[in-house]
Each structure stands twice: as structure tokens, then as C-alpha cells.
Amino acid sequence: MTVHQPTIKQLQYLVALHEHGHFGRAAEACYVTQSTLSAGLRELENLLGVTLVERTRRVVRFTALGEKVAKKAVRVLRESEELAELARAEGQPLHGELRMGVIPTIAPFLLPAMLPHLRREWPSLKLYLREEPSQSACEALHRGQLDCVLLALPYGCGEVESETLFDDPLYVAFPRGEAPSGASVDVDAIDEGRMLLLEDGHCLKDHALSACNRPDLRAHAAMMGTSLHTLVQMVDNGLGLTFIPAMAIDAGILDGTRVDARPLRSDQGYRRIALIWRRSSAREREFRLLATTLRRIATDLSAAPAEPQAIHEPV
Questions:
Q1: pTM of the full predicted structure?
Q2: Where do the domains of the chain lie, and which CATH numbers do they carry?
Q3: How do 148-153 and 96-102 pair as beta strands?
Q4: Where is the HTH lysR-type domain (predicted)?
């Protein structure tokens, strides 16, 4: 008896609908029309002889079996991706498409300086970038939507391998004239009532709080910034103080502001920038080569003369 198997395309439709919870958005994510996606899912249900999705005018609800099939489909698609990666890895390294996730507290500060060097070294690499918070990036990595992620550690991202690129020191940013005397800031000198942090979902918040090791900061800090640029503007307007990574200062985030920045005096006063990928990925050799290249570029950039100064003194 001939047994017809689900197609990769049908499974992609199912996973997209499960992720987005909306036929229109799922169709956009798959670059097809809504009717095409809906027809593909009905074909899948007819093939399996079960109902996977309950359709109403307002709600898309997966059945209990549909939930199990969708989760299994994620693993099947990931295995399919890794099969293609295995074949590609046997060819020329860092050649063709590579989908990299980058968190928002790294992307705008590091990539503009790094990418031109990377393009010159690996001109055949087609790098597609996706900027999103740490948790979303890790989820996309394990779903097979990303090949690797440029992340700040420590951060729990599941079964992954990693290569450290460099350590990124943390600074404390104050409104002009409010920074304590001295070249660095002691943890105990931070006013918990004036601390401004990024919203949940950004790992920089957890790195900063862990470096300080002060439960009162976590309890009293206002978590209201959607980006580092927003936090800097708040500090510039005298609304409080915040943490800024060195790479953002080096990239000029404080230029044109009346914000003073001092290094945080702490044994854990830094975050570790790393490239991570799925432990099961067949492209490990490529990712380690990519990490080596990025590490060397970062070292060369840090050794080059830089105009912006990390410590801004009052005028």
C-alpha cells in the first residue's frame, strides 16, 4: 500500500501558523497567499486523516493532536535544514547563505564596523541578519529559522555550542555633573531609586544586575527603556542613570549628549560577546571559522585609534 508522506512545504505552513496564530501573518511569513496556506493545511489534514486546527472567524485554535504534530514538525524541519547544511558544509566554507541573529544591544554598535571587513574576507558569503531580543533569537535558532546568533553571555539558550569573541565592559551613565568622583563607579555608589533599565527580554539588564549583585537594584529599578538610545536620552534629560556597554560608547552613543560614563567597578562588570549555534548543526567548522574571523576583526578594530572617549568629563 502506498503511504503518502507530508511535504516539507505543508509542515512549514503548519509551523508558521502555530508560531503566528493567524492565517494572514503565517502566509506572509511563508511568502504565499492566505488561500494557498489554508489549502496546504487542509491537504495535510486530509493526508493524515485528522483535524489539526479548529478554524473560526476570530480564533485559530490547535487541537491537542495539532499541538503535538506542530512541535514534531519543528524538529522535522530542523533535521531537513541540517541535512542541507551537511551537504553544504562539504563544499567551500562560508559560501552561500547564512542566517545570523543579532541582539539589539550588539547589532547597531558592532555590525557597521565589522561587516565591511567580513565582506572583504568572505565575498561569497550571503549574510542575512535578523535583529531580535535574546529569547526570541534563541527560539528562532532552535526552530531552524537562524543558523547562528551573535549573543551576550551568560544567557541560557539550550543545547548550543559557542565561541567567545571578546569581553564588553559595562559602564554607568549619569546626567552631566552627577557622576561620583573617581575613574570608576563602585557598585554601592549606585542609587537604586534612579536606575533605569531595559525592558524584560533584553539580556543586558540581567548582566548589569548580576554584575552589581544588589537585590535592591532589581527591586527598585524602573524597567522602561525599549533601546539603549532611549535610555541615553532619558539620562540626558536628568531622569536617572543606566548601564551602557563599552561597545555602544565606542560607537558614539553618547556623542552630542550631556551624559558622563564611568566603568563599573566589579569582578563581573562585563558581558561576554559570543557566536552560538545549535549543538547538532553540521556547520560547526564554518561557525568556528566565522567566530575566528569576527574575533580577529574585533581585535583589529579595538587596536585602531578611536576618537570617542569612554569617560566624558564635565565642561
A1: 0.69
A2: 8-87 (1.10.10.10), 94-315 (3.40.190.290)
A3: parallel
A4: 6-63
